[in-house]
Each structure stands twice: as structure tokens, then as C-alpha cells.
Amino acid sequence: MNIKRYALAIILAVAPSLSQASLVIDSFSTPQSVKVTSATTANSSTAATMFGDILGGTRTINLNWGTGGTEASVNVAADVANVLDFNQNSRVQSYATIIWDGLAGADLTAGGNNGFALDVIDLDGAIGLTITVTSGANSSAYTMNLASVADIKTQNISFADFTATGADNDANFASVTSITMKLNGTLVSSADVSLDNFVATKINTVPEPSSIAVLALSLIGVAAIRRRVK
User: Fold this and answer.
1) Which of 15, 85, 185, 200 is the most exposed place for a label (fewest CB within 10 A)?
2) Could you give the CA distance from residue 123 to residue 88 in angstroms, rounded to a whole number?
3) Are strands 115-124 and 127-135 parallel, antiparallel or unpaired?
């Protein structure tokens, strides 16, 4: 008997229970660009894809001018592939809203997902980040401030940390119709941020005790078979 091959088969059989499921909201690989100035104070753009890199197939970006300076922009997959860049020129304060709609009841909790993960790969200044999840007439939101170099990392946001907005009931994360991300650049002038890889995922990455137990028992079984063969 090929013990190594048998061991590999057992490990591969157990591995799916240890893996981290994820659902891509946006990999930011479909290009898009929106710009506003003091003369053009609001602008909007919608990008569509058939390649599965945007959940629901479309992404809408609304950009609104606040005060100061000359220009603000949101660029996706422009200078750097798979990156969303929110840039504000000197003294500019603005805000951008990114909308993923047409989700038709997407189940963000499939595979045990319990939160969002968003890679913050660059930050200059302070940016407010609000994610709103809508299911039908109900919506829930979570707000945080990205304010220092310590925030340049993967931000894990638990679904449990979202709260109902206004008089709405909590959103049903197992039947989502839209997701909205607001980048608030009005906290300080000239703030910029770069984002990558927005997914729904299982953010508690430590394997469950039951999965560890199954793997341990499998390895013990392999060891026992090996001793018998000898």
C-alpha cells in the first residue's frame, strides 16, 4: 500500500473543512474613472462586467465635490491593476459612493462567511469608510475611520458589528440586494486612499475545534496503518 498517497488523500478530504470560503464583491480589476472639479461638482459612472470580478455584474461610482482645491477622482485599475484609488488634490474635500446593486438576494453568509475583508494598501490623511448592506426595504451599516499607517492592512469587519439604519430593521445578510461603500474625504483636506480585494469571507481564520479534531484523527489513523504495514 502506498502510505504517502493514502495520507495525502485523507488530508485533501479534510482540507475543505479547514479552508476559508470567500465571495468576491469586487476585485477592482474592471477599469473605471470618475472626476469632479470646482466647476463640475458631481459626476457618476457605471461599469459592467461579465467576468465575475464584480458581484452582480455592475459597479456605480458617484463622486461629489465638497470644498477647496481643483480636482478629486476615483480610478479603478488605472495606474495599478486591481486597485481602487480615491485621490483629492491639495485642499480638496469630497466624498465618493460606490454601489453594487442588482445582487438579487445574494447570500453573503454562504460557506460560513461572517464578515467583510477589505485591503487598505495606501493611505494619506484620514478617510471615513461606511459600508451599508441592503436587503429589500431594510439596511444595516458600519462606519470606521482610516486615520493612520496602522490602518494600512486588511480590514476585517464582522457582520455582527453592523447596525440598522434609521427606522429600518437589520438587513438580512443571506439575501442582499445591494452593497454601498462611502469614502468620506471631508474629514481632512487632500486625503487619499487605495483599496483592493473587497470580499465577504470567514474572518475568524482559526479552524474550528471539530475540524482540528477530524484532521488529528485522520493523521493518527495514517500512523496506525503505517505501523501495521511495517
Assistant:
1) 15
2) 12
3) unpaired
Helix, strand and coil in the chain, % to nearest 5? 20, 45, 35
Mean pLDDT value across residues 95-115? 96
The pLDDT tens digits of the residues spanning 63-82 come to: 999 998 889 999 998 777 78
This model's pTM is above 0.85: no
Supply 75's cell numbers: 480610478
Residue with grid cell 465577504, as numbered in its chain: 200
Rounded CA gap, 12 and 225, in Å?
Answer: 18
Reading the block at residue 225, the C-alpha cell is 496503518
Grid look-up 478530504 returns 13
State the helix-helix crossing angle for 3-18 and 209-229, rounded to 10 degrees: 180
